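Re: flavin-adenine dinucleotide structure - here you go.
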Amino acid sequence: MAATSRSASIRIALRKWLTANSPGKQPSDPQERHEALRAWQRQLWQAGWLGLGWPVEYGGHGGDPADQIAVYQELALAKAPLPAGLVGLDVIGPTIVEHGSDEQKQRFVRPLLAGDEIWCQAFSEPDAGSDLASLRTTAVLDGDALVVNGQKVWTSMAKHAHWCAVLARTDADAPRHKGISYLLTPMDAPGITVRPVLQINGASEFGEVFFDNVRIPGTR
Ligand SMILES: Cc1cc2nc3c(=O)[nH]c(=O)nc-3n(C[C@H](O)[C@H](O)[C@H](O)COP(=O)(O)OP(=O)(O)OC[C@H]3O[C@@H](n4cnc5c(N)ncnc54)[C@H](O)[C@@H]3O)c2cc1C
């Protein structure tokens, strides 16, 4: 089927599904809201509305990435909320699908799609924003592990995340735009501290994340 007609049939089917599966009003308490949006993500996933452009063998539907955009547009038109794990779905998942090893894809993609594992992305630092090559977080090989030290900021979803994609400098001698690695890091690793950033509206959607001799084993 051509991409445009497939996208049109996805839109029609999703509109029908949404009328029968309205998520209703979301709780105002941030933690309850997060859990409700995780449940919503699971419902969307089980109904086949997530991972549309990703390979079938890792839990996707083998379609075109534009199919997923059609789904997001229909959710917005229906004023339905977005799923809880958006950072994973839109940024980290596609990176793992494109660049991860087969083992990493088998391990991470399904739980990321289902909302069983929430991801955050720790790139920005207090002195490394637009100029990301200024980042100072380091990861040094020690035996079979990388040892991470440094501080991140503006990490969306940090307090909810089970996993984090961390950028850290692994080659101190490389030119500043090189020698940086993308580390898939469990947020419960000893030495990781999350400090929520309190926004002026009282919400706390971001966090500072501190890495104090955090060992990430089995890193290639
Ligand atoms: C809603 C939201 C969610 C975010 N979530 C995450 C996240 O999950 N993980 C994460 O790592 N980061 C996250 N960020 C941080 C975001 O990526 C940073 O805001 C970004 O890296 C910019 O960094 P900065 O705030 O230090 O601004 P700076 O880089 O210091 O920029 C400040 C200002 O200077 C301007 N500027 C910068 N360089 C130049 C230049 N060379 N020439 C001219 N002007 C320049 C910029 O345009 C900007 O106006 C999030 C930000 C927002 C707003």
